[in-house]
């Protein structure tokens, strides 16, 4: 028979101080692991007996009695989960039929979907815990998981600070509006001390933030950022409804709004060539980062894909890779032929440690270096951008607003000038069909507009 082993996650929930119980399922070569969505206090966990130790106290306070009841409930849940999984394993062929990846996670989700009246035990149906389970079992990329975890932590702080209920069945459009307002104002809890360093100026928020911190204090969020967060919230709620975890549909009465983006800006081929020829004698390391950026402009991938590339990604004079953004959905292989300049850059760095393609720096340093190299190379053409906070147009020198993602725009924008064939360009850039981001490139060049107008003469 299969073996089930429970263990505690090393991470402590900052809100409750509890650790989640993890489940590992063994049978022959089958070895799957998932979260149970059950939490317990570490000091009462008995690894040997695979359950909570129940303290024996003759006279218990209400608090202690509640603790004991909670520990007993978790033990009961674990027993019933084990029985349920073993039964499902037998139904699936008891190992005689190969099981799919994430079989264990999907079966625990099936158990949650059983109507409450038919369920063998009570399952926590709170928004926070269900969202945690969604992040675990939903097929999304790692970058998307990080974004959902930001939503997860923001919801925790919102409930702790405002005392607002966000149970799935109780969510209303008014609650969603309050949460969106909280996202737009959370940065106001942060001030500066005499030395100009950020500090929390609201004592009540300090208690909340101590329990659910971020890697940095919240900064002002733009409208697009909030729309993105609420869109992820809506995706989760709709998933919960499809999986019969709730019948509630609060987003039917809440308008998320539409994000606003300006026309993509990018350096021209001529500016790219000026940058490639530039020398930085006072910053010799900058010339390495310049080579990486110019190479990046020739392949146009997302920076996360660039940082993961190895020498093995070069196949018959082209770069081949599967974009991480599409791996969990409909994975596609992107093949970008390498021109003379790109090949020349690769030949400069034949022996990068770890078989990496190029001597990459971290993404944050890479962005800073891109701004610096463009400024020192004298590439300071003014461009119009949309301020993410005010949503108003602003003019800036292009080096000031440059980032790693501009390399992607350099490829697409300059190809659009030459080819005017969106299908071929999307194949090279790895944009998915009908990508909203890709459609913004249709209006990128004034020269193209003039060319069309002249055809009317």
Tell me what the structure shows.
- With 457 residues, this protein is of the alpha+beta class.
- The chain folds into three domains: 3-123, no CATH class; 131-253, no CATH class; 269-454, hpI Integrase, Chain A, CATH 1.10.443.10.
- Helix content is 46%, strand content 13%.
- The chain has helices spanning 62-91, 103-113, 127-137, 142-162, 173-185, 203-211, 223-242, 269-277, 284-299, 303-308, 324-327, 340-348, 363-376, 405-419, 422-429, 436-439, 446-454, and strands spanning 3-12, 19-27, 30-40, 45-46, 51-52, 190-192, 198-200, 314-315, 318-321, 334-337, 382-386, 393-397.
- The protein has a three-stranded antiparallel sheet.
- β11 (382-386) and β12 (393-397) form a beta hairpin.
- α9 (284-299) packs across α12.
- The longest helix is centred in the N-terminal third of the chain and has 30 residues, at 62-91.
- The radius of gyration is 27 Å and the shape is globular.
